[in-house]
Structures are given as C-alpha cells and as structure tokens.
C-alpha cells in the first residue's frame, strides 16, 4: 500500500506528448522525461497504467479526409499507438529499470501481450507499469474512450490526463486567447454543456457513469503527476 491518495491510476497521454520539440514522430529525449515522471509515481508505490494516443504519427479521422476508408484509417492510428507504447516501455525499462508490460487491443503477439483484463490487474499488483496499446481495438473510438474504458475495467481510482503546456481546463484555448479562464473544478456534465474539448463525449459519459474522476494537468511541468497522485491541487478536477 502507498501513502499516496490514489492507489491505482490510469495516465492518459496524447500521441503529441511524445513529440517534444519535433513536428512528427518521437523525441527520445522527451520520452525519457515522460518515463522519468512515471517512475516518480511508480516509486510512491502507486499502480500505474498508461494509455497513449497516436497523433504524433497520424489520426484516423484526419487520414480519412484524404480518401482512406475511415475504419482502415482508424486501424492505422491504432498501430501508431502500439509504436508509442513500445517506445515508452523500452525507455521505462532501459533507462529507469521499471518493469513494464504492453497489452495490445489488436493481436500483435510478437511485440505485445493481448489485452486480458485479469492479467493486466495482476501485472499492476506485482508492481509493473501496464501500457494499454491500440485503443479499444475498434474503429470510430478515440484513445480518450480507451482510457475511460480501461480505467473502468481495472477499477482505477482516477484518470490522470496529461496535456502539453496546458495546466487544466479553460473556457478557451489559452495558447490563443490570453483572456481564457481556467476551471479548478468541473463536472462531466459541465464539459458536455459548455462544449469543452477536453475529452470526447463517449469517454466523459463512461467516466461519469463509473464515477471515475479525471485530473487534467500539464504533463510538461516536472513533478505535476506526482502531486496529482498525492491528491494535491493540480490542474482541473473533473468529476461526476
């Protein structure tokens, strides 16, 4: 058991979180930073699961606009998520010695375990970081929905949603509007009513139904993930 507020957390990262200062692909230096932040939480004794998007390589919806069938485009995006998961796994193990398992919703047995709920929970109980790859394994569902789904399946205490250089939920894009107002506390209903583009409606509805809070925070702020896991006021708390 850990003294941290949350015993089991689901970290949601966008694919863009792996870009660093690049415009495409993976920044090894930034992946090392992210792995270091995850290790800090792991060292608290917190059980950590991770879901990563694939937007640093491609987004299914965007690819579909260029003539590729939407379902096929989404599967391509899922493969990008697997690439990201493997990069994070390798860094966690090679640089920090953190035991890690990748479980893929698509069957790719040469590089990742298949997703099996009970096995994932057992990995977490043994102190391994579990990275859930390939989203839900179904087209038309986002990595946000995958995060909410996996969080519900493993009975995570909280979803930690890491954003890039944005320290919470605002009523406008703070990178474009200097007058944007930050929310410290929101309900999932507020997200939908106000049209705040923090997570997709399906993910918000599932998290609300299962009573799983989400903390939206700036992953690029060193130590923010540890503070969130400890229950300190970080970013924006979204709840039912």
The figure for the number of domains is 1
CATH architecture: 3-Layer(aba) Sandwich
Radius of gyration: 17 Å
**Would you report the number of β strands?**
11
3D shape: globular
Question: In CATH's first tier, which class applies?
Answer: Alpha Beta
How does this structure look, described?
With 240 residues, the protein is α/β, with parallel strands linked by helices. The chain has one domain (8-239): Acetylglutamate kinase-like (Carbamate kinase, 3-Layer(aba) Sandwich), CATH 3.40.1160.10. It is built from 8 helices and 11 strands. The protein has helices at residues 28-43, 60-64, 70-96, 117-125, 143-153, 188-194, 201-209, 224-229, and strands at residues 8-13, 47-52, 100-104, 113-114, 129-133, 158-163, 169-170, 182-183, 185-187, 214-218, 236-239. Strand 1, helix 1 and strand 2 form a beta-alpha-beta unit. The model has no long low-confidence stretch (mean pLDDT 94).
Question: Descriptors for this entry?
Answer:
alpha/beta, 8 helices, 240 residues, 19% strand, 11 strands, Carbamate kinase
Summarize the structure.
The chain is an alpha/beta fold. It is 38% helix and 19% strand.
Task: Itemize the secondary structure elements and their pairings.
Layout: E1 8-13, H1 28-43, E2 47-52, H2 60-64, H3 70-96, E3 100-104, E4 113-114, H4 117-125, E5 129-133, H5 143-153, E6 158-163, E7 169-170, E8 182-183, E9 185-187, H6 188-194, H7 201-209, E10 214-218, H8 224-229, E11 236-239
Parallel strand pairs: 1-2, 1-6, 2-5, 3-4, 3-5, 6-10, 9-11
Antiparallel strand pairs: 7-8, 10-11
């Amino acid at each position: 058991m850990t003294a941290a507020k949350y015993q089991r957390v689901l970290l949601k990262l966008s694919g863009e979180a792996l870009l660093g200062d690049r415009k495409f692909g993976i920044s090894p230096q930034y992946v090392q930073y992210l792995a270091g932040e995850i290790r800090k939480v792991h060292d608290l004794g917190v059980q950590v699961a991770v879901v990563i998007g694939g937007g640093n390589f491609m987004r299914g919806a965007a690819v579909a606009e260029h003539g590729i069938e939407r379902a096929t485009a989404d599967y391509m995006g899922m493969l990008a998520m697997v690439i990201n998961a493997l990069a994070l796994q390798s860094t966690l193990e090679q640089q920090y010695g953190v035991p890690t398992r990748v479980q893929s919703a698509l069957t790719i047995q040469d590089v990742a375990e298949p997703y099996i709920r009970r096995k994932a929970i057992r990995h977490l109980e043994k102190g391994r970081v579990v990275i859930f790859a390939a989203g839900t394994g179904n087209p038309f569902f986002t990595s946000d929905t995958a995060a909410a789904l996996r969080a519900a399946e493993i009975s995570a205490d909280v979803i930690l949603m890491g954003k890039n250089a944005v320290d919470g939920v605002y009523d406008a894009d703070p990178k474009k509007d200097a007058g944007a107002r930050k929310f410290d506390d929101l309900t999932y209903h507020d997200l939908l009513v106000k049209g705040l583009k923090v997570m997709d409606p399906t993910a918000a509805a599932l998290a609300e139904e299962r009573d799983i809070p989400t903390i939206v925070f700036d992953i690029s702020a060193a130590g923010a993930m540890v503070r969130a896991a400890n229950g300190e006021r970080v970013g924006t708390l979204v709840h039912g």
